[in-house]
User: What shape does this take?
Amino acid sequence: MPRRNSTSYTAMIAGLSRSGFVAESRKVFDSIPPFEQNVYSWTAMISSYTHNRQHMDALKLCSVSYGEFFPWILPNSFTFSTVLNYKENVFVQNCLIDLHGKLGNLGDAENVFNGLTNLMIVKALAIFDSMEEKDTLSWNIMISGLAECGRGIEALEFFLQLCRLQGPGTYPNSSTFTLAITICGTYSMLKTGVQIHACVLKRGLTESNSYTGNSLINMYMKCGSIEESERLFYDMPRRDVISWNSLILCLGQNGHSKKAMEMGEKALSLGIYNHNTFIALLTSCSHGGLVDEGIEYFGAMSKSSGIEPFLDHYVCVIDMLGRAGKVVEALNFLRKMPISPNAIAWSTLLSASLVHGNKEIGEVAAHELRILEPSNSASYVMLGNLYRKTGHFEDSNQILELMNKIDLKKEKGISWTL
Assistant: This one.
C-alpha cells in the first residue's frame, strides 16, 4: 500500500463524507500529521460538515484555521464558499460577520450584520405577538429594538399603540417617552415631538426625570428649535452634566458658538463637566471657526480639568482645523497624535481636503483610509471628486475604473460629481 500523503488523506475525507460518515472523516482528519496538513485537507473536512448539515462545526473549524496553532493554513475562497451561504440562525451569522471581517470584506460583514439584526427583530416581533400578557417593559424593549435597527417609524407606531392601550401594568413610562422623543429627534419629526412633549408635560415627567428633559432638549436641537431647547434647559428643576452638554452642543451646531462657549465656561466653573463637555465645546469652536479658542480648550483638558483627550477629541480638532482651511496643520496634528488615527480621523481630513481643494493631502488621507477600510467606497468617491475639482479629470476617471475593476459599489447618498 503506498504511503499516505496529503492528497490521499483529502480523498479519504471526501469519500467518507459523501457516504455520510462524518465522525469517521473527522478521525482521518485528526490523524493527518501536521506537516501533511494543508488548506485542501481542511477544506475537505469543512465541506464534510456542511454537506452533512453540521454547519456549526464547519464554522468552528474554519475559525480555528486562523488561530495561533495553525498559522500556516489560511482558508481560501473555496473554503469560505462552503460556509458563507448558511445563514439560518444568530450564532452562525455572528460567525459569518467575524469571517467576512477577517477576509477584509467589511461591506459583506455589514450586509450580514444588517441581515442579522433584521432576523433578530423578526424573531422578537414573533415572540412579542405570542405573549399573552405584555407589560410596559415588553413594549419598551420592542420600541428600543426597532429604533436601534433603523426602523424608527415602526417604533413610533408601537409607542402610539401603547398609548392607546393604557391598561393596568401597560402604560408608557418615562423611559417610553424618552425613547419616543429620541426617535423624533433622529428623524426630525418636530410636529410629532411637540405632541409627545405635551403628553410629557401632562404627566409632569420633566420635573421628576432629567433623562426625559435632556431628550427634549436634544430633540428640539435636532429639529432646529434652538429657543425651545434653551427654554427647556432653564425650566429644568435639576440640570445634570448631560443637560449642560446638550445645550452647549445645541448652540454650537446651530450658529451660536460664542453663546455655547459662555455656557461651557459656566459649566466648567461649576464643576459640571466630563469628556463630552469638551467634545461639545470643540464642536462649537469648529462650527464657528474659532480655531484659537478650540486649541486652548483642547490644551486645557488635561492641564486644568484633569481629563485626558480621547480619540474623539482629536478628531474634533482635525475637523476644526480642516473647516478653517488649515488642512496642512490638520495633517501635522494627526501625525503627532499619541493615539493611532482611525478611519473617522482620516475621513475627516479627506473631507476637508475636498472642500478646500488640497490634492496632495487628500491623496494621503485617501491612501490611509483605504488601508483601514478597503471596502469603503467613500474614500474612492471623495478622492475622485477632489481630482475633478482640481482639474485632474484623467485621475478621476482612473479612480472610477478602479472601483469598477474591484467591483466596489458607490454608497447611496454619495455623489460622484460636485
